[in-house]
Amino acid sequence: MNTSIAKKYLQSGLSVLPANVQMKFAALSQWKQYQQRLPYDSELNSWFSNGNSGICIVTGKVSGNLEMMDFDLEAQAYKKWYHLVQSQSPGLTEKLVIERSQSGGLHVIYRCQTEVCGNMKLAQQKVILPTEDEAEVCGKNYKPRKDKDGNWFILLTLIETRGEGGLFLCAPSPGYELLQGEFTAIPVLTADERDILLEAAWSLSEFIPEPVPEPIAASSNNTLRPGDDYNSRGDVKQLLQYHGWTCVKAGENEYWRRPGKTAGWSATLKNRVFYVWSTNANPFESEKPYSPFGVYTCLEHNGDFGKAARALAGQGYGQRQPDNSDVDLSGISEKDSASKSEEWQDDAVSLKDLITDFSGLNPPIIHGLLREGETMNIIAAPKVGKSWLVNSLSIAIATGLDWLGFKVEQGPVLVIDNELHLNTLTYRYMELAKAMKLNPKLFSQQVKIKSLRGQLKDLMALSQYFGRLKPNTYKVIILDAFYRTLPDKTDENDNGAIARLYNTLDCLAMYLNCAFVLIHHTSKGNQSQKSITDVGAGAGSQSRAVDTHVILRPHEDADKIVMDAAVRSWAPLESLVLRKQHPLFEVDTTADPTALLGAEKKREPKKEVLLNEFVDTCIGSQDPCLMSDIARLASQHYDLSERKTRAMVDSAIEENLAVKIHTGNRVQYTKFREGFSGEKGQWVAALLARNPDADIANIAHLTGVSERYVRRIKCGTGAELAGTEFRDSSTLTPYEDIS
Questions:
Q1: Does pTM surpass 0.70?
Q2: DSSP letters of 46-87?
Q3: Which of 52, 169, 249, 512 has the smallest number of CB atoms closer than 10 Å to its CB?
Q4: Helices then strands, each counted (H, E), the chain
């Protein structure tokens, strides 16, 4: 009987073979040829003449782009899958051929208008087990393995396919029952309909494998590789969108659709792992997890990880880990020090060679202020008019006209504005052109504008865009306002984070052979008493990281502002007073640049504070003490600012008059006492100086030394303690933590 059925299947265009029902495989020693051609009638007669009861069908192109979805483990995922498909395309499931397998699972069979891929695992489930003992699920045995967290687990396949090169057993083989449709009338689905079936199955998967580590050379212990850095903070979503991918469902597990696809989805993004399900998502491979660096490498560099790492390094990714100035370096071995010294010696160049090769400073862009390859801040309070001023700067660069009396070299400008709408920017440039009596045609081709209002991009995303530009595309790139480009969760008061962002801009400026101008705002409050480099909201590193730091502060006359600048590669600049002539600013040489709004009248100069006196009064009287305690006494006794207090403490440490100690998670300071070596000795001496009767055991526990060591210091025995004196205990206050 099976011979006639096999012939009907063959006549319907199916590559049908005899099957070993127990082995669930073709009952032929050689069957690969039938992946390419249909069997002959004579072959069918030979195979089934002996009463062979098992039938299997080869899937893929040979059977008319046939594909089978196998719902395993007694088809426990089928019901959810069915409802998902029905919600997307009502009636689609009624077209399909469905049979029950001998294990209680289900086979869903269909053809596709386009070629199908190889076998795929569509939905899997990870099951954590208490032991490594073999587990049985639905009659199948599974051997557990360990995950990266040390848990024993098994991986169950809920849904998989048989596609190109595969085969499956089918009815009327023993144990197989046809439930819906006929194998002689298998439906042909469109590519979109097939995607609906696959996507419904993919959405049921509970397991996404970890990305395979990228083939990049390991870093040394104190460096961060560009790829690892990008994995932790790169904007993979922005990168995908730039390359035409669309996020169709947000949430913890995001669904993304590939370019060219108009419905459904092709990949998921969860916990920064991009898992590609689609077989038509070039350049990605199907059923493969990608890290952000893997995504970047595929999309930007054709899978060349080395090239991708070098490009990311040029964008500021992957830097030497910053040294912690508070870390005790006394334990570093001579060998470690020598190796680090050798590492840096390789990069050193003799001054003689530098002088011989010196060809001058970088070409100027704004004479007196800015050169190629440099970065410049322009800092001002809100509503001062800094954006108008910067827009006029872009026109000056585009035309080569002077700007506020500074000579300017002509070149193309890119303005990236994330505060104003595009029509507002256009209006402003038209108003400026009118006020400057310029025809916009003279500069409009040289000024490119990109408004990010409503579609903010952080600096890492912008760096990817900048990295695709060719060198010399622009003479100047303006970011207005810079604070809006900070990556998510970046604290603008974090000196290290801000310094790394500026380092990224330095790399880009050198690569693009241009200059960056960054517009930023001041902190709240009166700015008149601050030095130039202290003006600006956020971390102080922003002023120290740039080549030019320009600040605009209100003048006591309402129609004027004062411009000051700290420069690196130019002679120091005199302060300028700018008079507002909306929408322009003009230099006012008659106004007093020192007449800042809110400035205090000059007072008598403060009496010079002697360092020894400062240490005795502000540190020795209360040590060990916090910087805040020192600053409080310094303000009371000497009217010193916190900044000046910190400078005095640093000087005291340099002169061996004070010592910085680490008390648990805090940094404290003590007066330096002769005869005591090391941080621990100074700490113990300070505690005993404050309270000579303190419990020795408590001091030893607090400082991490032995009681014998504390007792030696207290008793004044040992060569290192010779000549040590303590104050009269009647003048001391108890030390709360140990008394």
A1: no
A2: HHHTT----EEEE-BGGGTSEEEEEE-TTTTTHHHHHHHHHH
A3: 249
A4: 22, 32
- Rounded Cα gap, residues 539 and 546, in angstroms: 13
**Three-class DSSP category at 169:** strand
Cβ-count burial of 389 within 10 angstroms (0-12 exposed, 13-18 middle, 19+ buried)? buried
**Residue 734: is the preceding peptide bond cis (ω within 30°)?**
no
Structure tokens that stand for 613 in this block: 């006196």
Class of domain 611-731: mainly alpha
Q: Once rounded to an integer, what is the mean pLDDT over residues 556-583?
A: 91
Judge contact between 7 and 47, C-beta under 8 A. Answer: no
> Beta strand pairing status for 188-189 and 106-112?
parallel
Is residue 169 exposed (0-12), middle (13-18) or buried (19+ Cβ within 10 Å)?
buried
Tokens of 34: 């039938």
How far is C-alpha 200 from the chain's CA centre?
Answer: 31
> CA 634 to CA 620: how far, in whole Å?
12
Largest CA distance in the chain: 117
686, 732 in Cβ contact below 8 A?
Answer: no
Rg of the chain (C-alpha set): 37
60: left (phi over 0), alpha (psi -120 to 50) or beta: left
Structure confidence at residue 83 as a pLDDT band (50, 70, 90): very high
Helix (H, G, I), strand (E, B) or coil at 311: helix
Percent helix, strand and coil across the chain, each rounded to 5? 35, 20, 45
What's the CA gap between 159 and 171, in Å, rounded?
20
Residue in this structure with the two tokens 């997890």, named with its chain if needed? 289
| Structure tokens given for 399 | 């035309």
Contact (CB, 8 A) for 440 and 429: yes
CA distance 403 to 394: 9
Residue 596 dihedral angles phi and psi, to the nearest 5°? -75, 145
The CATH superfamily assigned to 371-587 is P-loop containing nucleotide triphosphate hydrolases (3.40.50.300)
Per residue in 349-358, pLDDT (tens digit) is: 889 888 888 8
User: Is the separation of the CB atoms in 115 and 61 below 8 Å?
Assistant: yes
The identity of residue 233, as a single letter, is: R
Report the Cα 711 to chain-centroid distance in Å: 52
Structure tokens at 642: 């916190």
Q: Are strands 55-58 and 15-20 parallel, antiparallel or unpaired?
A: antiparallel
**Residue linked to tokens 């998989």:** 160
Token pair belonging to 91: 């009636």
CB of 231 within 8 A of CB of 213? Answer: no
Between 50-54, 89-93, 240-244, the lowest mean confidence (pLDDT) is in 50-54
Q: Residue type for 80, please?
A: K
653-670: buried (b, 16+ CB within 10 Å) or exposed (e) per residue? eeeebbbbbebeeeebbb
Lowest mean pLDDT of 196-205, 232-241, 716-725, name the range: 716-725
Unique residue bearing structure tokens 């197989």: 176
